[in-house]
């Protein structure tokens, strides 16, 4: 069974072909980052218009790369939500129209379920049950996953998501948008012990997060700095390193608590922030210190992509799921709602 996956929830158009027997056949991505960087954030109308331009050529590209005709596709999976309504509609329309013209099923899937399953695209894949630390631009959540579609939220950010805090801090440091990866790169030349920043909610027993105060603390320290230019550059790197370490300390500390609370030993870390190297180094050490097996998506599948949507759709379609022909998206949609 060959599934075409379509991701268009925000500023990346992702297409992929996934085979239930052979795994991932091909994938292609167009990132709109340059388009939105000019405005310092995603402009929803521009995002929708650009998805419309890319969807058909990228579909042709993944078919050509996998050497598969459109008629060889068994079904289509698309991101139904959460995300930007207009952007979601472009992918949903494409999926529905293609499926209708080919006489095959289409199914809308949950974007976060895609992120959560992304490590299962790899040969060394995790098994259920597991705990997922989902850290993206829009979400920071700890979820117990007993099986596909069985999601129990243990905790989440009560304000900014981790990626959002990275992006806002990076923007303030003049590192562009979205600046999470740039801030992390800069952090490598900084000393994380120089600037002391808070570890919000780390000492609380619950599994919720809060990154807004940490972001404000970093901004305040940056504005208060009064050294000369070379000192300023070094302080910027030190602040980036200190901020990154503070976020990672909280993410790791809460993940350990979640593992203890759930009694499970498999941790999946996914979403854009799971590309962060400091986070990966710290998480990898959990095997030795806490006997926790940690899995991530490959780097290019940490951020939004079509492969994770094709995989999530393939699993649900194999379970016999179907939907009617109505085109509907869910810009707001909690992962727990899938548990029914
Ligand atoms: O999962 P994703 O593509 O989008 C959402 O579904 O929200 O995540 C994008 C987020 C952005 O906030 C970006 O700055 C962050 O992931 N990100 C990183 C790194 N790479 C991407 N944050 C920290 N370190 C990185 N290396
Ligand atoms: Zn995402």
Entry keywords:
Nucleotidyltransferase, domain 5; alpha/beta; binds 5'-O-[(R)-(carboxyoxy)(hydroxy)phosphoryl]adenosine; 2 domains; 5-stranded mixed β-sheet; 11 helices; 340 residues
Order of helices and strands: EEEHHEHEHEEEHHHHEHHEH
Number of beta strands: 10
Tell me roughly what share of residues is in helical segments: 40-55%
The main sheet comes to: 5 strands, mixed
Total DSSP helices? 11
Q: How many structural domains?
A: 2
For the residues shown, what is the average pLDDT?
97
Bound molecules: 5'-O-[(R)-(carboxyoxy)(hydroxy)phosphoryl]adenosine, zinc ion
Uncertain segments: none
Strand content: 15-25%
Name the CATH class of the largest domain: Alpha Beta
CATH topology (level 3) name of the largest domain: Nucleotidyltransferase, domain 5
Summed up:
The chain is α/β, with parallel strands linked by helices and 340 residues long. Helices cover 43% and strands 19% of the residues.
Topology:
Blueprint: E1 2-7, E2 12-19, E3 23-31, H1 33-37, H2 44-66, E4 75-81, H3 85-102, E5 106-110, H4 111-117, E6 130-135, E7 140-147, E8 150-156, H5 162-172, H6 180-187, H7 212-224, H8 229-262, E9 266-270, H9 277-284, H10 286-290, E10 293-295, H11 306-318
Parallel strand pairs: 1-4, 4-5, 6-9, 9-10
Antiparallel strand pairs: 1-2, 2-3, 6-7, 7-8
Helix pairs in contact: 2-3, 4-11, 5-6, 5-7, 5-8, 6-8, 7-8, 8-9
The structure holds 5'-O-[(R)-(carboxyoxy)(hydroxy)phosphoryl]adenosine and zinc ion (ZN).
């Amino acid at each position: 069974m060959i599934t075409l996956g379509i991701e268009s929830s925000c500023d990346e158009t992702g297409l992929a072909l996934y085979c239930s027997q052979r795994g991932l056949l091909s994938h292609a991505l167009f990132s709109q980052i340059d388009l939105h960087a000019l405005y310092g954030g995603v402009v929803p109308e521009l995002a929708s218009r650009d998805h419309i331009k890319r969807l058909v050529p990228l579909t042709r590209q993944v078919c050509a790369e996998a050497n598969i005709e459109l008629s060889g596709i068994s079904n289509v999976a698309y991101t139904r939500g959460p995300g930007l309504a207009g952007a979601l509609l472009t992918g949903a329309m494409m999926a529905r129209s293609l499926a209708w013209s080919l006489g095959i099923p289409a199914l809308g899937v949950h974007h976060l379920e895609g992120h959560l399953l992304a490590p299962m695209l790899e040969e060394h894949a995790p098994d259920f049950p597991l705990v997922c630390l989902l850290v993206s631009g829009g979400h920071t959540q700890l979820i117990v996953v007993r099986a596909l579609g069985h999601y129990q939220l243990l905790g989440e950010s009560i304000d900014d998501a981790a990626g959002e805090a990275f992006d806002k801090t990076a923007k303030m440091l003049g590192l562009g948008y979205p600046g999470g990866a740039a801030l992390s790169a800069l952090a490598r030349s900084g000393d994380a012990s120089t600037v002391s920043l808070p570890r919000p909610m780390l000492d609380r027993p619950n599994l919720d997060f809060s990154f807004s105060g940490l972001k404000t603390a970093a901004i305040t320290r940056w504005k208060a700095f009064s050294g000369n230019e070379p000192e300023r550059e070094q302080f910027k790197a030190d602040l980036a390193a200190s901020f990154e370490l503070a976020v990672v300390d909280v993410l790791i500390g809460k993940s350990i608590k979640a593992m203890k609370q759930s009694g499970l030993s498999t941790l999946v870390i996914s979403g854009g922030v799971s590309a962060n190297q400091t986070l990966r180094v710290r998480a990898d050490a959990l095997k030795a210190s806490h006997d926790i097996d940690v899995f991530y998506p490959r780097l290019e599948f940490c951020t939004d992509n079509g492969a994770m949507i094709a995989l999530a759709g393939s699993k649900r379609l194999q379970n016999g799921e179907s939907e009617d022909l109505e085109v509907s998206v869910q810009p707001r949609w909690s992962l727990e709602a899938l548990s029914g």
